[in-house]
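Whether sequence alone determines local backbone shape is best considered at the level of individual chains. We regard such an encoding as a compact summary of how the chain folds. The sequence in question and its structure tokens are set out directly beneath this paragraph.
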Amino acid sequence: MIQALDRVSEILNRTLTWLASVLLGVMVFMTCANIILRVFGKPVGGTVEIMAYSSALVTAFALGYAQREKANIPVDFLFQRYPAWLRKVLTCVNCSLVGVFFCLVGWQIAKYAATLRTTGEITETLGIVYYPFTYGVSLGCFVLALVLAIDMLKVVSGREEGL
């Protein structure tokens, strides 16, 4: 079961990371185009909106991948000195609390996205609808929660000592 969940997590994170990479490329292109065109007095309209929503998605889509790859900054000076059983317990508690937190955050953001969809809220300059971006951020939170649940299952099953 853990292997199947891990495989699903890998596919989800690979897809979201690819999408984040594409969005980041679009952001770089838009920034360069805006800088060059601004010199000629013709800046790209709505650049701020596109950058804001794209950066929210890039960040949210990278959360699960960063956790899977342990790309976060470890603060484990004392943690590594604890006995293995205590590291396991602390890792499980941490994964549980943070996983539940991100489930709640994802749920609340999804509820907010549903409200935005119902009200038909759009951006001021370009008239882009908000809710797809909001649902994307919610998805990123849920994928991070999945990765944390898998990490906890790995520790409980003895596949990893303590992350």
